């Protein structure tokens, strides 16, 4: 750009580029001699360049400051990280969608307050996480638009009197636009904090998933077998198989949350414009990216390799009166007000609990005694399989609706098992 506006000659540009490439190769190989007395990485590189190509190297810093250069570099790094994490999120979504072929038709108990509530298809559960990670992807994409604004050329504080072409630089580096105010340019890290927030929500979603699967892998639930490669044994109890990767995923969420909090506190009292406090921003963001990336990579593998314990699930599927809400809605369909229907079915559940039987084992006389509308057709909605088939609303666990959603997700993600 400096050459295009006449600040550098073509020959000077060639010298600078050659010198910088040599320095980059030495840094990559670990042979570059960093010197403590030269303040920072910028001055080390500039001094090395001057030693290689002479006074032409002193022109490198024209029209910019370390302030806007750091902001530019950080944005470039975050932009690349967003793209990489987006790929990892897609891989995790595919792992869930690819389960849908082998788990089709499997019914799980759904919970609220960790109490059995209503039956759901396993595929409905898998797609619930696809939706969460899709919103994470959308947040990253939205964040990327604000990250992808070029600060370079705004210099230290007020801009520069040199007739530079910032738009040319933006085009060369793939930025969508220019940071419009030179004081704002290097003084804020809202783009980094927004990225850290998006990473925190990803970590929270991973932690929720990990917590559920930790519970599911216990003897008390026995819903799930976590792949042995992602578990460890006990040092003293030979029967133990501990879901360590899931526990670490849950635990490492605390680091990501802490990093976000540290960034928010870091900038809370900074005056315009640049302050050296901002040097503390990168370690937090780097750590969050490393942590979330590792958790996403492992999550995709765990999801792909886990196996549902179908026998254990089905053996207790009728426990907990999962079909009670469907029976209540049957009464609503017969014209009974919702609150009245709720009370009637509640009494029937209480009666079944006393007898130690599911609702479907109550007699027709008991149903008729509770309400005349509860005729022999109730047995067509009782039981988890009938209850599942009764769902109709968009977004529900209706087999038809879920099949539609699975097809949409496969098309969207290009899932392997089409």
Automatic annotation (TrEMBL):
**Pathway it works in:** Amino-acid biosynthesis; L-arginine biosynthesis; L-arginine from L-ornithine and carbamoyl phosphate: step 3/3
Alphabetically sorted, this entry's keywords are:
Amino-acid biosynthesis, Arginine biosynthesis, Cytoplasm, Lyase
Catalytic reaction(s) noted: 2-(N(omega)-L-arginino)succinate = fumarate + L-arginine
Q: Which GO terms describe its molecular function?
A: argininosuccinate lyase activity
Any GO CC annotation of this UniProt entry? cytosol
Query: Which residues belong to any copy of the Fumarate lyase N-terminal domain?
Result: 3-258
Where in or outside the cell it occurs: the entry states:
Cytoplasm
**InterPro entries listed in its UniProt record:** Arg_succ_lyase_C, Argininosuccinate_lyase, Fumarase/histidase_N, Fumarate_lyase_CS, Fumarate_lyase_fam, Fumarate_lyase_N, L-Aspartase-like
PANTHER family, alphabetized:
ARGININOSUCCINATE LYASE (PTHR43814)
What's the family? Belongs to the lyase 1 family. Argininosuccinate lyase subfamily.
Protein name from the UniProt record: Argininosuccinate lyase
The taxonomic lineage of its organism, from the top, reads: Bacteria, Pseudomonadati, Planctomycetota, Planctomycetia, Pirellulales
């Amino acid at each position: 750009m400096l050459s295009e506006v006449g600040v550098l000659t073509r020959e000077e540009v060639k010298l600078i580029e050659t010198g910088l490439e040599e320095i980059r190769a030495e840094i990559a190989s670990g042979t570059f001699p960093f010197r403590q007395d030269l303040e920072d990485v910028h001055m080390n590189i500039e001094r090395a360049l001057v030693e290689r190509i002479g006074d032409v190297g002193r022109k490198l810093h024209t029209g910019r400051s370390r302030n806007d250069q750091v902001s530019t570099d950080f944005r470039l790094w975050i932009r690349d990280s967003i793209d990489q994490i987006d790929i990892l999120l897609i891989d995790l979504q595919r792992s869930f969608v690819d389960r849908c072929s082998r788990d089709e038709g499997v019914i799980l108990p759904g919970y609220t307050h960790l109490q059995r509530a209503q039956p759901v298809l396993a595929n409905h559960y898998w797609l619930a996480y696809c939706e969460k990670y899709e919103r994470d992807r959308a947040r990253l994409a939205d964040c990327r638009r604000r990250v992808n604004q070029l600060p370079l050329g705004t210099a230290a504080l007020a801009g520069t009197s040199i007739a530079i072409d910032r738009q040319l630089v933006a085009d060369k580096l793939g930025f969508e636009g220019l940071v419009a105010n030179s004081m704002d340019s290097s003084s804020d890290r809202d783009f980094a904090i927004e990225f850290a927030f998006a990473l925190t929500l990803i970590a929270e979603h991973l932690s929720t998933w990990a917590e559920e699967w930790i519970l599911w892998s216990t003897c008390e639930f026995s819903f799930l077998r976590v792949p042995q490669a992602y578990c460890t044994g006990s040092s003293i109890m030979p029967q133990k198989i501990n879901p360590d990767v899931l526990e670490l995923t849950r635990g490492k969420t605390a680091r990501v949350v802490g990093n976000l909090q540290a960034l928010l506190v870091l900038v809370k009292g900074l005056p315009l414009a640049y302050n050296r406090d901002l040097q503390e921003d990168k370690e937090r963001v780097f750590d969050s990216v490393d942590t979330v990336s590792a958790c996403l990579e492992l999550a995709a593998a765990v999801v792909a390799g886990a196996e549902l314990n179908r026998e254990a699930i089905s053996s207790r599927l009728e426990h907990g009166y999962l079909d009670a809400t469907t029976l209540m809605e049957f009464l609503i369909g017969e014209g009974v007000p919702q609150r009245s229907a709720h009370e009637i079915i509640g009494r029937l559940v209480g009666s079944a609990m006393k007898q130690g039987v599911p609702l479907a084992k109550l007699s027709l006389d008991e149903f008729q005694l509770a309400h005349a509308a509860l005729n022999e057709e109730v047995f067509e909605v009782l039981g988890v399989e009938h209850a599942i088939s009764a769902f109709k609303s968009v977004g529900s666990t209706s087999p038809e609706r879920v099949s539609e959603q699975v097809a949409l997700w496969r098309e969207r993600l290009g899932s392997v098992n089409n």
